[in-house]
Specification:
about 325 residues, single chain, 8-stranded mixed β-sheet, alpha/beta, Rossmann fold, 12 helices
């Protein structure tokens, strides 16, 4: 039992973005389609039997596509979309396997997600887009920019995965510790205990994360969601981007909370976030790094005003 709790704790740290935001407290869900979103949700059919959920708010000469992280979904960006939609077209997506998007047994590689972004943009006739990615979404954004350089005009990376490197043994540790049952059986106590690790100081409005994360466990598509989380972790460790960062030519804004408890991984590397943020940003030829004090991994929620201000200045 002691070992199970330890593994569950590690899983919750890995699922740094499993925090889900809604406006209504829910004790259970029949399906993840029943999750409450602030903005109207649309659907689009993509290649590979993918039915992708997205929101499309605001107008402007530039389009920002927001890509959530591991275990997360569209409402993670609510505070950013609400502010930035007055100046830009803001599109946020649920990745395949997450939120209100379809949940098949997807491969979960970074290339797979990059292809999804490209297909979405092709069908929506979007060009020269700005990708804004949080955590795993940051690594997906980098992969997309490398694979489809003509599609991506700029990058906004929020506490991105990919700046921290792992050796062969450490990569295998991720593969071994991440199992579908391990994610599925994470207890309410562990969810509550580890929620605080996403933040420097847990904000009151973040309590909605607990309610939704608990409610999801009754959803008929929850196990498929857990499967896709496991595949996503394997995708991140199997397709690292660190060595390719010098090839990212797009102007890039990178934002980290200085008190990020999840980057670096405290079980494998340890140390301070600033070290890894600077190490990754310095490898990119056109990267502007911003560090926000008294902020954690979910910096775009905890310090939304500062993040939105940095984004507007960057895009000007």
């Amino acid at each position: 039992m002691k070992n199970f709790l330890k593994i569950s704790s590690i899983l919750m740290l890995l699922l740094s973005n499993s925090a889900l935001f809604s406006q209504v407290k829910q004790e259970s869900l029949h399906s993840m389609q029943d999750l409450v979103y602030k903005f109207d949700t649309k659907k689009i059919s993509l290649q590979g039997n993918i039915n992708l959920a997205y929101i499309d708010e605001g107008t402007g000469n530039e389009t920002i596509i927001f890509i959530h992280g591991l275990g997360s979904y569209i409402p993670a960006w609510d505070k950013n979309v609400e502010s930035l939609k007055d100046f830009y077209r803001c599109i946020a997506i649920d990745l395949p396997g997450y939120g209100k998007s379809s949940k098949e047994n997807y491969i979960g590689t970074m290339d797979f997600y990059a292809d999804v972004i490209n297909d979405f943009c092709r069908q929506k006739n979007l060009h020269n887009v700005i990708l804004a990615g949080h955590s795993m979404g940051g690594q997906i954004s980098l992969t997309t920019a490398l694979k489809y350089p003509d599609l991506v005009k700029r990058l906004i990376l929020i506490a991105p995965a990919g700046f921290e490197t792992f050796n062969k043994g450490e990569k295998q540790w991720f593969r071994d510790v991440m199992t579908v049952d391990g994610v599925r059986l994470t207890s309410v106590e562990i969810i509550k205990t580890n929620l605080a690790y996403n933040f420097y100081k847990l904000p009151k409005d973040a309590n909605f994360m607990i309610n939704d994360r608990i409610a999801m466990r009754t959803a008929v598509d929850f196990e498929a969601y857990c499967y896709n989380i496991v595949q996503s972790v394997k995708g991140m460790v199997d397709q690292p981007v660190f060595e390719f960062l010098p090839n990212v030519k797009q102007p890039t804004l990178c934002i980290f909370g200085e008190n990020d408890n999840l980057i670096p991984n405290r079980y494998l590397n340890g140390g301070f976030t600033r070290k890894y943020a600077m190490k990754g940003a310095s490898r990119m030829p056109n990267c502007e790094l911003k560090l926000i004090g008294k902020a954690g991994h979910f910096v775009m929620f905890e310090k939304a005003e500062e993040v939105n201000s940095f984004i507007r200045s960057f895009l000007k």
